Amino acid sequence: VQLQASGGGLVQAGGSLRLSCAASGNLFKIAAMGWYRQAPGKERELVARVTSGGSIEYADSVKGRFTISRDNAVHTLYLQMNSLISEDSAVYYCAADGDYLPTKYRWWGQGTEVTVSS
Which uninterrupted H or E stretch holds 7? Predict the structure, then answer.
């Protein structure tokens, strides 16, 4: 499984961005997909994840502002980010795994950087 993330960039506080993660390879192996982020000097943290059954989970810090979605027809995971704040600045990674609710994701994309200016 290969994951290609895109859509990051520079945005003003209060603005929006949509991240995309295109999956390829043995797609039948994928059960869960998610977005993580890592800010400088901080640990990588879960932002949102979705299972093949449609169960969704968000970090408390992004609830009501971010929306994760998965389009299986084009094998792409999305993260719509609205009302961005400076604390959302980070490198965002998409991840996938064969488990329904993985504790660790097996496959990772290369990361796309989001910078929110205040």
Answer: none
Q: What is the DSSP letter of 87?
A: G
Kindly state the percentage of the chain with pLDDT values over 70: 100
Element (H, E) at 64: none
Type of residue found at 108: W
Minimal CA–CA distance to 46: which of 3, 78, 92, 107? 92
Check residue 46 and report its DSSP letter. E
In whole angstroms, give the CA distance from residue 80 to residue 68: 6
Query: Which amino acid, residue 105?
Result: Y
Name, in order, each residue with C-beta under 8 angstroms of 106's C-beta and a sequence gap of 6 or more: 1, 96, 97, 98
Convert the pLDDT of each residue in 51-84 to its tens digit.
888 899 999 999 999 999 999 899 999 999 999 9
Q: Which two tokens stand for residue 37?
A: 């982020």
State the alpha helices, DSSP H only, in the chain: none
C-alpha distances in Å from residue 20, one per residue of 50, 77, 111: 14, 6, 11
Q: What is the mean pLDDT of the chain?
A: 96
